[in-house]
């Protein structure tokens, strides 16, 4: 009995081998068809052809498999074949690791982002006054932090909320950053302001609400300075990466991606920090990946564990909002750290053993 079973199984092994060979032979033919379709510019998926094959197969089917089962099996074969054709001709993005295996390392006033060291970017949500900027700049300088953020153009949920100081805010940011030897990052919201930004700031931020503002992305692609692209509040990683591609394809490949939380049903945080975005973006692209712990959480009390998680997940840096007197801040008052809280966070990060300097 056992011997008979053994014999039958040996026979099945042989048939499996034959099927495997045939399936792969079929796959080679499918690939050749894919080449022709690609040259002719016709779609790879051909439902009419698939239906004709299924009809022919079922009309010839001697059993014992029922027609429904034969259809099911062959549909799977067609699906795998189509995948093969699409995979062969998939458009590779400039920002993808397949095109460039090595990390893009961005030099911002001699601070390298995306290399072996991780960076901290900090500063107020909005530029409000010289006094405010100087307090933060002095604290950053003391802490050895080289890049200061500060918003001058603020796309706010309500048109009645503080909209930022605009170009004057950029001027103030530059003046104070120069005094303290810091590099700056600020959001730009209008394509016409990109050239102006180059005069005042070191990194252009494109905000979450503008992640798919394609004209702005194209304009940033013409800029000579790096771009920090924030993930949209409801953007998939696929959309995020394609938004970065809009910038890269125009010639500016100095693009950094920043996860800033996505919208979910959770209310205990302002947004939900998608930590899996970090390793996925690092895997799929060669761009530096950062995490904005302030906007993703909207809170002050869980920044250290979130920053540690980001660094452990392979982020190239962390961004946080700091204000000398958060209660009076003109935007994002609830989430900005005061200077002692910031210093405590920074100590915690540096002593965690996770921050590579
Ligand atoms: C094939 C693959 C995908 C199409 O949807 C239809 C058929 C197949 O696997 O048989 C081959 C093919 O591309 C074709 O015959 O045009
Ligand atoms: Mn803010």
UniProtKB/TrEMBL annotation:
Alphabetical list of PANTHER family matching this protein: PHOSPHO-2-DEHYDRO-3-DEOXYHEPTONATE ALDOLASE, PROTEIN AROA(G)
Which Pfam family is one of those matched by this entry? DAHP_synth_1
Q: Name all Chorismate mutase domain ranges.
A: 1-89
Keyword vocabulary terms for this entry = Transferase
SUPFAM superfamilies given in the database record: Aldolase, Chorismate mutase II
Q: Report the leader peptide range.
A: none
Q: What is this protein called?
A: Protein AroA(G)
Question: Superkingdom of the source?
Answer: Bacteria
Organism of origin: Paenibacillus segetis
Is Membrane found in the keyword set?
no
Tell me yes or no: is Ligase among this UniProt entry's keywords. Answer: no
